[in-house]
Design brief:
By secondary structure, the chain is mainly beta. It has one helix at 34-41; strands at 5-7, 10-12, 15-20, 25-29, 52-57, 66-74, 77-82, 87-91, 105-112. It has one domain (5-112). 7% of the residues lie in helices and 44% in strands. The strands form 2 sheets. A 6-stranded antiparallel sheet has the order 1-5-9-6-7-8, with helices on one face. Strands 2-3-4 form a 3-stranded antiparallel sheet, covered by helices on one side.
C-alpha cells in the first residue's frame, strides 16, 4: 500500500468522478459534500473539469493543502469534516481500496494534470 495515493478526478454528467482500473473503479462519483469540497479545492486550477491530480494520504506530506477529520461511519462509508471549508463530506466504501480502515485524518493536494 502506498503512503501517498494519486487519482485523476474529472467532471462527467455534472459530477466529479474518477477511474482507477487498478482497483476496478470506473466513473466512481464523489457525493454528499465531498463534491463541493473538490469544487472549492480546484477553483484555481485551469480546466480542472477535464482532469486534475489529487494526491492523498492518511499522514501529512509536504505541500498538502487540505485536511479532513473523521467524524462517523454511515451506510458503509465515512463522514469527514474539513476545517478549511467548515463542512462535512461523505466518502463511500471505495475508500477501502486505498486504506484498510477509515483513517482518522486524510491529507490531500490538488494540482493541474500534466498534459
Amino acid at each position: 500500500m502506498n503512503a501517498i495515493s494519486v487519482i485523476v478526478p474529472y467532471r462527467y454528467e455534472g459530477m466529479w468522478v474518477f477511474d482507477d482500473p487498478r482497483v476496478g473503479l470506473v466513473r466512481e462519483p464523489f457525493v454528499a459534500g465531498i463534491d463541493v469540497m473538490i469544487g472549492k479545492l480546484v477553483a484555481n486550477i485551469p480546466m480542472a473539469e477535464k482532469g486534475f491530480r489529487l494526491l492523498f494520504s492518511s499522514t501529512p506530506f509536504p505541500g498538502y493543502t487540505v485536511k479532513l477529520e473523521w467524524r462517523r461511519e454511515e451506510y458503509g462509508g465515512n463522514w469527514y469534516y474539513s476545517p478549511q471549508f467548515d463542512m462535512e463530506g461523505w466518502l463511500c466504501p471505495a475508500l477501502f481500496n486505498y486504506f484498510p480502515k477509515a483513517p482518522p485524518e486524510l491529507y490531500a493536494r490538488a494540482e493541474a494534470k500534466v498534459l
